[in-house]
Write a structure and sequence with these properties.
TIM Barrel; Trefoil (Acidic Fibroblast Growth Factor, subunit A); 2 domains; four-stranded antiparallel β-sheet; globular; binds 2-acetamido-2-deoxy-beta-D-glucopyranose; hydrolase
Length: 535
């Protein structure tokens, strides 16, 4: 508390702080039950992040060889991301021989002459910075552009992540000394004091490998959490689970014990690695049911537990060339779940290329939203499907009643009634629906009008006829159906060729999860999710 008369120094300090606040996006964040909030106003803040790696051998944020830093940041913002999950390797902040390397020296060390020429052209001012100074410069520029930052300890030894046996997987592995890791967390938490755009730190990416076990997880993750908080109490402390960040189910039986409150967030990764194309094409609907249930059981349950916490899906993503059946079906299923839970998230990933990854120069990243030259979006249709999850749909502070947006995850659009026509439109402008329980009419909020079935192949319509009762008829929870005049269930569907909404015979419905029935049809066009919203 400052009770003395302000001296000149204090006034300058105050002016400096004002500037810092002016360019920051928000006050420190904290948690209120399962939600992230601005700690001053109490208003909900949602992290809609994209990952940006800076943890590979050169320790240089990817893309600075391709475009000026502010061009890259502008692309992040203009595509609807308000946040970056920015990675760092432990050694960069614990070992001077890593952290004190200048950008030019680090490039020379690996003979990266083309990248060096690219940086000299696009970002010449960074060549003489140390890699730590560069890390802070990137975070500083993100802040000036009102982009929030989550700092993610991705590996210890700077390198590509994450093989089970790469020495970076778990406490005690070849490069993963727990003491040094704690030192690194403390160093980063301290280095980023006074950077209000840095809203949180992730303790460690994708713990894994033969050494992983729950007792060590509790021991070190609790200690790491306390360490970050002790150094920088403004930060959210973001804790990842075992098995490459796919499981936090053990928190049901043993609580996570830390010495602070209102800052703890859990994170998880949700990809479809290991599930072959054939499984997805044979069983799209039941597989979606299975992976969604797994996500609920492993981590989404934390958002509705008695003692609830925010869950940050800090990695998910697909090969944006659209070559994988598994990816294209998983992501549709994923978007429905994430829209429903309205959790915070970070897409993998921003980078169209890597300066050096796994020994290869200028490696293309097919999961990157940007192309290899960082010029334009690799797949604009994919990014546009993220729009509903980039919005806040549920504001827990709002007194307004909940309604539903009828979300079609395959297109990324929502159902809208325009002059009695039923169409797909931007989810910002979705029609508001009421449905009090399953198997009951779906009403347009604030009217006496309901959605009703007209017949196979016909468009459903909205009128005062409220006799159609809509029911979820499949294991995935994503088929909305009502009976036609003959008593047969017809499902909402979007016709892929003309984008019209019709009702058709339901594809691949059936609830028997234990006996995954093969269904060669692709039901994705029939997937709709009633997403709760009140904003
Ligand atoms: C870089 O090039 C020099 C000279 O050609 C060579 O001796 C060295 O092994 C190279 N270093 C790496 C990391 O490729
Ligand atoms: C919490 O734990 C950290 C790390 O062990 C310690 O430095 C700090 O003093 C503790 N804080 C409180 C309030 O007990
Ligand atoms: C939203 O929908 C209404 C009709 O329901 C329409 O008049 C308006 O132009 C739409 N706005 C946008 C931004 O699409
Ligand atoms: C989709 O729309 C086109 C064009 O209106 C029509 O020819 C086709 O039969 C429709 N497909 C289905 C499955 O209803």
């Amino acid at each position: 508390m400052m009770r003395t008369k302000m001296n000149h120094h204090a006034i300058l300090m105050a002016l400096f702080l004002l500037q810092v606040v002016a360019f920051s996006n928000s006050a420190p964040l904290s948690t209120n039950s399962r939600w992230l909030v601005d700690s001053v106003t109490g208003k909900r803040v949602k992290l809609a992040c994209v990952n940006w790696p800076s943890h590979l051998e050169p320790m240089i944020a990817e893309g600075l060889d391709k475009k000026p830093i502010n061009d890259i940041i502008q692309k992040i913002s203009e595509n609807g991301f308000n946040c970056v999950r920015f990675t760092w390797p432990t050694y960069m902040f614990t070992r001077p021989e890593y952290g004190n390397l200048r950008v030019s020296e680090s490039l020379d060390k690996y003979n990266l002459s083309a990248a060096k020429a690219g940086i000299a052209k696009n970002n010449p001012q960074i060549l003489s910075l140390t890699v730590v100074e560069l890390h802070k410069t990137v975070v500083g520029e993100l802040g000036k552009n009102k982009v929030m930052v989550v700092l993610d300890n991705h590996v210890s030894l700077p390198t590509w992540c994450c093989a089970g046996n790469d020495g970076n997987g778990f406490f005690g592995d070849a490069y993963f000394d727990p003491k040094e890791w704690l030192q690194g967390l403390a160093a980063v938490a301290t280095a980023y004091k006074g950077f209000p755009q840095v809203v949180g730190m992730s303790l460690r990416n994708e713990l894994r490998g033969g050494r992983q076990n729950e007792p060590d997880w509790y021991k070190y993750m609790q200690e790491g959490s306390n360490t970050i908080h002790a150094q920088n109490p403004d930060l959210l402390v973001i804790v990842s689970g075992l098995y490459t960040d796919t499981n936090l189910g053990y928190l049901r039986s043993k609580a996570f014990e830390i010495n602070f409150t209102n800052k703890l967030v859990f994170e998880a990764h949700w990809y479809t690695f290991g599930i072959p194309d054939k499984a997805w094409s044979d069983q799209t609907n039941n597989l979606c049911a299975t992976v969604t249930k797994r996500a609920r059981d492993n981590y989404l349950f934390l958002t509705s537990a008695k003692n609830s916490f925010p869950v940050f899906i800090s990695e998910f993503g697909i090969d944006e060339r659209g070559l994988s059946v598994a990816d294209s079906r998983y992501i549709t299923c994923f978007l429905a779940a994430v829209a429903e839970f309205d959790v915070d998230w970070a897409l993998w990933s921003l980078q169209g290329s890597y300066i050096l990854r796994q020994g290869k120069l200028n490696l293309d990243e097919s999961y990157g939203i940007l192309d290899i030259n960082w010029d334009r979006l690799r797949n604009p249709a994919f990014v546009s499907r993220l729009q509903i999850v980039q919005q806040i749909n549920q504001d827990f502070t709002s007194k307004k009643p909940t309604y539903y947006k009828m979300f079609h995850p395959l297109s990324g659009q929502c159902v809208q009634i325009v002059k009695n026509e039923i169409v797909l439109a931007n989810c910002n402008n979705a029609s508001r629906w009421d449905q009090h329980q399953d198997d009951s009419p779906i009403k347009l909020e604030g009217t006496a009008e309901c959605l009703s079935v007209d017949g196979d192949g016909a468009a459903p319509h909205v009128s005062e006829d409220c006799s159609s009762k809509w029911k979820i008829v499949s294991s995935s929870g994503l088929h909305l159906a009502a009976q036609d005049g003959k008593g047969e269930y017809l499902c909402l569907e979007v016709n892929a060729s003309d984008s019209r909404i019709v009702t058709k015979k339901c594809l691949c419905v059936g609830n028997d999860l234990s006996n995954l029935r093969t269904c060669a049809d692709n039901p994705q066009s029939q997937w709709f999710k009633l997403v709760p919203a009140n904003v």
